[in-house]
Specification:
Structural class: alpha+beta
Radius of gyration: 19 Å
CATH class: Alpha Beta
Helix content: 25-40%
Strand content: 15-25%
Oligomer: single chain
Distance between the termini: 35 Å
CATH topology: NADH Oxidase
Bound molecules: flavin mononucleotide
Largest sheet: 5 strands, antiparallel
Order of helices and strands: HEHEHHEHEHE
Shape: globular
Number of strands: 5
Number of domains: 1
Length: 196
């Protein structure tokens, strides 16, 4: 019998993936197709999720559907100039993944835990895209709460659009953007004395 530890990646691989992931803003085609997207979502759905409620769904938007969604969002813009720019934002990547939060009424699992689980899934999905060589970035909009956008996407009354993961192939030639290690010393406190 194979021990679980034999089938797991060495810790360094995962850590390198996490430390080197960057959001990619300049994206071109291709993007993952339906089968790969399902596979990626199944993997991302392993993120911590109290009760495995999976309180989310994903709307994949590609091709001309981006244009139509852009037109719906543009209707919410206060000026014609902004409307044009809002519409154009929907064409920045070949694939948009609308991330829809679906909070459930649950006796012991509060809404905030469900939102945290949804965020964990999305973050895991971004990491998986990155390690497979796809580019992706999470943007909160445009206009996730606009009635025109909600109607166009068919959102239910209790559903909330948490923006989009914009996905595609990184535009070649972008300089590597390795990040400096964050100074998180002020973010950590101990009660009871630090362990060795
Ligand atoms: C929920 C969420 C919404 C975001 N919305 C925006 C946004 O609307 N505009 C923006 O410039 N960055 C936004 N960001 C930040 C980018 O996704 C990204 O993290 C940032 O550009 C830093 O890049 P990095 O992931 O390589 O560190 C958002 C991040 C999250 C988690």
């Amino acid at each position: 019998m194979t021990a679980a530890s034999d089938t797991r990646p060495v810790a360094g691989d995962a850590e390198t993936a996490i430390r080197t992931r960057r959001s990619t803003i300049r994206l071109t085609g291709p993007a993952p197709g339906p089968d790969e997207l399902l596979d990626l979502l199944a993997a991302a759905a392993t993120a911590p999720d109290h009760g495995q409620l999976r309180p989310w769904r994903v709307i994949a938007i590609c091709g001309d559907a981006r244009v139509r969604l852009g037109e719906a969002a543009a209707e919410a813009a206060p000026t014609a100039d902004l409307a044009e720019r809002i519409a154009a934002k929907h064409l920045r990547a070949p694939l948009m993944l609308g991330l829809v939060f679906q909070p459930r009424d649950h006796p012991t699992i509060p809404r905030w835990e469900q939102l945290a689980a949804t965020s964990a899934m999305a973050t895991t999905l971004l990491l998986l895209l990155d390690v497979r060589g796809w580019g992706g970035v999470w943007f909160g909009g445009p206009y996730p709460d606009a009635p025109q956008v909600r109607k166009h996407l068919g959102l239910g009354g209790d559903e909330q659009l948490l923006g989009y993961l914009y996905v595609g192939t990184p535009v070649p030639g972008e300089a590597s953007r390795l990040r400096a290690t964050a100074d998180v010393r002020a973010k950590l406190s101990w009660l009871g004395g630090a362990t060795a």
